[in-house]
Amino acid sequence: MLRLPRFRHETPASLEEAAALLSEHKGRARLLAGGTDLLPNLKHGIEEADVVVSLGRVPELNRVRETEGGDLELGAMLSLEALASDALVRKRYPALSVAAGLVAGPHHRRMGTLGGNVCLNTRCVYINQTHFWREALGYCLKKDGEACHVVKGGKRCVAAASNDTAPVLTTLGASLRLRSQSRGVRVLPIADFYVQDGVYNKALEPDELLESVLIPMPQPGLHSAYKKLRPRDSIDFPRLSVAVAFRLESDVVRDLRVVISALAARPLMLKKVGDLSEGRPLNDDLLDELGSAAFKQCHPLTNVDGDTTYRRDMVPVYVKRALRAARDSGLSMP
Amino acid sequence: MNERKSINRTHGPDAPFGEFSRVGKRARKVDSMAVATGQAMYTDDIQLPRMLHGKFLRSPHAHARIRSIDTSRAEALPGVHAVVTGSELPVAYGVIPWTEDETALAVDKVRFVGDEVAAVAAIDEDTASAAVRLIDVDYEVLEPYFDPQDALVHHEPAIHEGNRKGNISKHVLLEFGGVDEAMAASEVLIEDDYAFHGTAHAPIEPHCAIARWSGDGVLTLWSSTQIPHYVHRLLASVLGLPAHRIRVIQPYLGGAFGGKSDPFSHEFCVALLAKKAGRPVKMLLTREETFYTHRGRHPMQMHFRTGCDAKGRITAVDSKILIDGGSYSSFGLVTTYYSGQLLCGPSDFPNYRFDSTRVFTNKPPCGPKRGHGSVQPRFALEIQLDRMATQLGLDPIEFRRINCQSENTQTVNGQTVTSNGFLQCLDAVEEASGWKKKRGKLPPNRGIGIAGSMYISGTNYCVYPNDMPQAGILVKLDRSGLATVFTGTSDIGQGCTSVMATLVAEELGLRLDQVRVVTSDSDLCPVDLGAYSSRITLMAGNAAVDAGRKLRKQVQEAVAEKLEIAPGQVMLADGFAFDREDGDRRFTTQEAFQFAEAKFETLSASGSYNTPERGGDYRGGTIGASPAYSFTAHVAEVEVDPETGDVHVHKLWIAHDCGRAISPVQVEGQIEGSTYMGVAEVQLEHHEVYTGETAEAGLHMRPSLLEYTLPTTLDTPELEALIVESIDPEGPYGAKEAGEGPLHGSLPAVANAIYDACGIWMTKLPFTPGKVLAALKAHQAAGSSGAPNEGAN
User: What number of C-beta contacts closer than 8 Å exist between A and B?
Assistant: First the structure.
């Protein structure tokens, strides 16, 4: 078995205490919010930590509540299993429930959390390996090296965003509540949270923690869905993922958002695809048109296992399947 | 061939008292509760006082010469107790005595990324790992060989520089009959290329070994091996120790599937590290390391030609196979023969040629995996059969019936077939699957396909020639009423311990809880050659019946004296010894054993088994020879998603002729497990290294259980196991093998079902959705001409 490196383990009992620990250790601390991502990464030497701050004993982080404005606030430590089976989430945001239920396997979903999935480290076939393997490779620019093995000669890391909840939350217009000791609380739209850099793809500062996810009350007629391409019907990270959300207003599409992930360092919002559909009925012609438009905008890389040509071919298929699923069964109920 | 003594097959297939009381009954494995409750002690569960932990330094290069190794910094690290390098263990070894090309650690060359270079024993794993990184090695990097075609042609320098055949590991060309003439006269001729991609065993338990030296210089090795006897022999040879000063123990094993058949580097290294440190040493491989240790199923590029006449009788089979062996020989000599020798049934053909070449490449070494050597060519042949049937407009099951060889016959390559239940297997899967209602009649993109296969029940000859028994066993009867069985057989999860217990219980009229089995301890148990080639049920089973029967005679005689009846009138069953004609006149078996012990003194008996003379009279004719062959038929039902190329295997029906099912539950388990493994190789699993000239060349592409996608329960089709019992004259009560045969047909049955579903012949494994989609597109582009095409795969 691979061994964990040595670190100090802290178990704060409040948000303030957790934020203070992050501030005290200035980038040498890592948050443990389930550990299904962090612990393998520590074993592989992809992440390093002097201090691991476990969030399991901070009661506020497990909260699910409706705000006065009707938004749903989901605590960052809500387990993916709880998220997937939450009745209100299922009713209002069926795509989110589906996405949470498609993360890894049952054991991971019981340990893994919403906050952990939102903050999941990017992944690449050249980085998620042991130290021996990466040393034999000569390392890569995400950690310890200078070369990119995906884009030969590339200077920016293209490790892929591989979290299932992120694309759905993006289509739903969610925001993230972030806290630090020095700057207090800020709320950031999730669309502005991810950046195009596989080394670290988040706007989360080293001294900040994700407290909760806020999802606006669904507008009438909101349909949403999530589709995930993976080799097995269990466990695997996405090789391609598609989240869609739109409103149907007298049978025509309004405000379609299509987000594709597992291609690049951040989930990709296909704005052109959304614009094409505005005010049109969601029939087979439109589905084909949207599928083709999505295909043109997506260029899978070898950062993820699986044939890139095939993954690209699956873009229109999965976009269309997601749109059909959203239309036929993905209606949000207030 | 030497004159062989075929010993101890005096018993027939019948029950000792007319009716079986244990054999054929549905019972749990005798060790199932220990395994299920966590009581079972695996090698890694063993913690010895003062035990150290060992780690390897492995090569980061695919092909390089070692100029120098400096271990001084590692040795100076506090907590480090011993370091070994290749120069201290220079004796070459190999599981096959004719191809000894491995050393415990690289002596002057490394041959793949992950090859073992040095080993360290330290106070804990972290210290050992830290020490490994302090070893300085100066390498001269050489051109690596990744493509077997390329390795065949180029060999400067060769991977094994002493090899006179360049990078060729083994070449076999055998012809029976006249292939070219028969092919020319055939009505139908099918010719195509097939590929098998390479897969690993991926047992849940990684390899582990522990060594301890006693004060008087006896080495004890605990190891997760499936062949303790060969480890024992080669430890003696490599360490230069007399074999009697070595004790090898195999604890509970968490799966092997052929991947724990070779003697391994860690087994030699713990022994030497423990000697140098003066303390016990354990090495437990990481999951990643098991992918380097490998010995998985060989990638093969196969060219097949088959012909048949207008009535569908096969006239000739001709194959040319290139086998990618990876960096060492392992069992490769046998693999090369098996790629041809095991194909000559259940379909009979009068003319046959195979031309197989195994080459070395700079990849982890390939070896035996469940269905050793024959799963790959079987895949090709069974698709060829379907294509001939299709061309003639014959139902593929009917085509196989036309060509089915009889029982008590000889194959074209001179192997002796005793029982053969293949026709019953075909009937069983045809009926259970609803074949006649489905074949060619299912909705679009849904299809059903068939495949057949045969496999050996043990290999007739030991890997080192000798006249001693293949299997030995000791049974001791105790006045407590217990029978203790001492056997060198390796239970690797396949359940041979339960089979031994069942056979001895049957002979002595005991319940299963009245038999205990002591296994795989070279100090306690007679030699058995181990868990490979599906040999144990037939071979050790015969030895168990032999020993049990000797003791039964003594017990019957002693009881007969008490009951004043003839010994033959004493019956033993369910824990009692009684008068066959008056069941009320009875004793418990415990009482009966006490009578026998009083009459004959301490009760014990040995049993042994050796194989009858078998095999073709030509060089290599004994490879593939077996006392008996199992037969299997698979039917697969699949659905192909035309948009994604995803092949969903709904169900497989598998009928397997195992001779007699000693334990039907275990036979079903083996059928299901084999088929699960085969379907995994069709769609998901792929052991592969990066090639080309990039930085990643030579590195393993998927060295973890996340990346090496084993199917989970959600990815496993429904499996229906059907047992066919042909009652073989060679096996114990008629039993043959069940552990490997039922894998073979899984692959071609799925391929043949895909053809029925959507008209494409998939010929290159694995059938990833991308390949299937490309083939579908090419098929559509070719229009409805009906011309078979292989698409882009």
Answer: 78
